Amino acid sequence: xxxxxxxxxxxxxxxxxxxxxxxxxxxxxxxxxxxxxxxxxxxxxxxxxxxxxxxxxxxxxxxxxxxxxxxxxxxxxxxxxxxxxxxxxxxxxxxxxxxxxxxxxxxxxxxxxxxxxxxxxxxxxxxxxxxxxxxxxxxxxxxxxxxxxxxxxxxxxxxxxxxxxxxxxxxxxxxxxxxxxxxxxxxxxxxxxxxxx
Length: 197
Known about the structure:
By secondary structure, this protein is of the alpha/beta class. Helix content is about 20%, strand content about 30%. The protein has an eight-stranded mixed sheet, sandwiched between helices. A two-stranded antiparallel sheet has the order 2-10. Strands 3-4 form a two-stranded antiparallel sheet. It holds the Pfam family RibD_C. This is Bacterial bifunctional deaminase-reductase C-terminal domain-containing protein.
């Protein structure tokens, strides 16, 4: 059985974006190297350092079997144009209906779900023995509060944003993590923490 994980590029002071939602320097590590990385389902190519590319292939490529996101990140990305990260079945937790012009392509693998437990149940069924990715700061916090998250990944970028959207802001209790697995990249340190049970 796969794990449930969250992953964000994060500033040293804990922000995943500025107040307007712009990620700015937090994603520069996707293009500061010479190794080409092509994310599944996208017509783009990242140019990462060897260390970051190796980390990407070990942790992202073909590992996720389902994806759960909140409505905020869905709206921000415009539903990734109908092609979610990895092209896997995606469950959007929301109390609002899909946009009127949705889906942009007939085969868009999105399901809109009214509550988190149902979304996680559907994601587990869709993922089989593969991992489930969870995205969106509010949703990740809800998942941590509910005990769904097995691993927290942080791509730590050496910048202090001072204000913006925090990765962890509304946790109900302390969350203890195991010691991290660390990969040093250029202008980023990749950290993987298992959640202590």
